[in-house]
Amino acid sequence: MSILASVWAWFGDGAHWQGPDGVPTRLVEHVQLSAEAVVIGAVLALPVGIALGHYGRFGNLAINISNAGRAVPSFGILVIAFQVFGLGDLPIILALTALAIPPMVTNSYVALREVDPDVKDAARGMGYRELAQLLRVELPLAVPLIMAGIRTSAVQVVATATLAALIAGGGFGRYIIDGFAQLDYAKLVAGALLVAMLALVTELGLSGLERLLVPRGIRLLMAPKLRRATTFKVA
Description:
The chain is mainly alpha-helical.
């Protein structure tokens, strides 16, 4: 039996869709770990990036620290956290949160810095105070880039959450690690496919959320630029 047929048979086996090792249970575990890490990362990273971008101070320092954070392997953080905190979700969430923070800091900072200074001056001229200018003028314009950072973080976290299985965690990584240990390549490939599909769904879902958050006027303003870019690429 070919590997593709074996994988198809694995998905078709009802035993793999129920119980503590069933796909629905592993899906909930994977989503829970990923969502917690992304939410914690957003709570920590977005206010910092937005504040630095708004005021324009210490931005280069924040970007350099953020980029240095990207160089630290998640597996290394996971091992250190495991040595300190032992088994459980905490070391996994710490490692995934560290992975989620850098793209969100960088994108939110750049998004606020790229808001047209003339727009800021016009808002001040209309009597907007500092907070109102940030919330009602700058942030709506910065949403596309901020959401791009969140999407990048979320997809990376979903893909990397498979490492949880290395320290007895749950999620789809359980299929990959167990399949490799048991030489059950159908389970291994099935786990990889499930992770890939979840990452794709995450990307598409956050793209839809971005469309809801971006004001319609800004979408209409950006549409001609996107069409020109597409035409240029085709040509």
